Structure formats: structure tokens, C-alpha cells
Here is the input.
Amino acid sequence: MKLIRAIIRPESTPRVIEALEKNSIYAMTRMNVTGRGKEMGITQGSIRYTEIPKEMLMIVLPDDAVTKAIRMIETAAKTSAKDYSTAGNPGDGKIFVTDVEESHTIRTGEK
Amino acid sequence: MKEIIAIIRSERVEPTKGALESIGVKGITFVNVIGRGRQGGIIHAPDPEATLRREVSVYIMQQRGIIRDSDDPKYHVPVQKEIELGFLPKKMLMIVVNDDEVPLAVDILTQINRSGHQGDGKIFVCPMTDAVRIRTGERGINALS
Here is the structure.
């Protein structure tokens, strides 16, 4: 099993969730986070915003479903560039995948 | 070392803290999250008050357009999803424990948080490669004890 952590724009969350729902991935945990990427936030004139609100989705999936899920999140979370020369903008987010060794359902205790 | 991530009901936080302390796990991190499970959360509850108490109204909840426990046929009509009810407030707790403490911690978490209804939560066990106590710079197991 793998844990996917996707840090995405809050406004693209509904699109991502819809895309995952279409592939019957319903189980997920969401949380509001703030952060910045390699651009070190946003600079507007002389003001630098270093903590930008984002939304983090956590999804645990079996190994074989991970690649497909990542592609779905990617497609849904990518914003189109203003001039359409390149897809995506800085700030669209990141997806991290880590290992999960066991998962337990509390209600039934099953592994 | 292993990291245990558990997503539990908000009202079970206090008992969980006590139970974990009793087995010697003192460092706990809680995060407010919203989430849903396999059932896709609660889409629609016929009783508005129950909707407000949605954490405890599991027995009348409607799963993906089908009410399981209602005999009234008027609730059997599939409704369009009203998605904002789909995510429920939960608490996520993160603890880091030694490998041999994992089964005990998982047992305790399961016991304390089990109500037998959907929405009790999940526990995930993940590998954790290192830990550092910032104050002293201790690494690994020493940073936990």
C-alpha cells in the first residue's frame, strides 16, 4: 500500500475530488495547510508572501492503483497557463508517495 | 521506528490520549482534518438535526443515494449528491513508536475508538527512518524516550 499526499490549490480541490470519484476513489482525508515551493512564495512588488494557503489530500491506495491515481490528480490539479504555451503554473502543487505497511479498520479490526 | 497515523472521531481524542499515555506513548500530534471513507461520507440525512450531529447520526445516513436503515420509501429515492456533506470533521493523530510497540499501540487505538459504526476511522502504519530531538540533537530511538 502507498500513501499519496497531494498538496494542491484549494480552488482545484473539487476538480481533483471529482476526478477521483469517477474512478471510485472515495476515501480520502483533507486538511488546510500553508506552504511554499521552490519559488519561495509569491513576490508582489516589495512584498513577499511566503506562506500560501494550500489543501493537502491524503489517500491510501493499493500499489497497483497508485500510478493511475497520480495521473488523475496531476491532470485535474494542473491549471492552464495564460498563453497556453506550457501547461501548468508554479503553485499547482506537489504529489508525494510514501509506503504504508499496515492499515487497520477500527470498526472491525480487520487488517 | 514506525509512524502510526490514525484518523479517529473528534470526541474520542481525550480517551485516546489517556490510553496512549498508559502504555507509555507520550508524544502525540493531533491535526484537525476532514475526510471520508469507502462509503463516500454522508451525502444526505433526512432529519436536519441529525445532519448537524452528523458524527453520531450514522444509523440514518444515506450511502451514495441508498438509505440502508430507513423503512420509509420516500427516502429510497436516489438524490443528487450534495457533496459538501460528504466530508466529515475528524482528528488525525500521529505518533512515532518503536517497532515492538506497534501491535500494542494499534490494539489500544482500535479498542478505544471502536463504536461499531461506520466512521470509526483507519489506522495506518508507515516506516519512519529517523527522528531528531531538536533541543539536544539526539537521533533515532533516543529522541523518542
In short: The longest strand of chain A covers residues 52-61. The helical segments of chain A are 13-22, 63-77. Strands of chain A lie at 2-8, 28-35, 42-44, 47-49, 52-61, 93-99, 102-105.
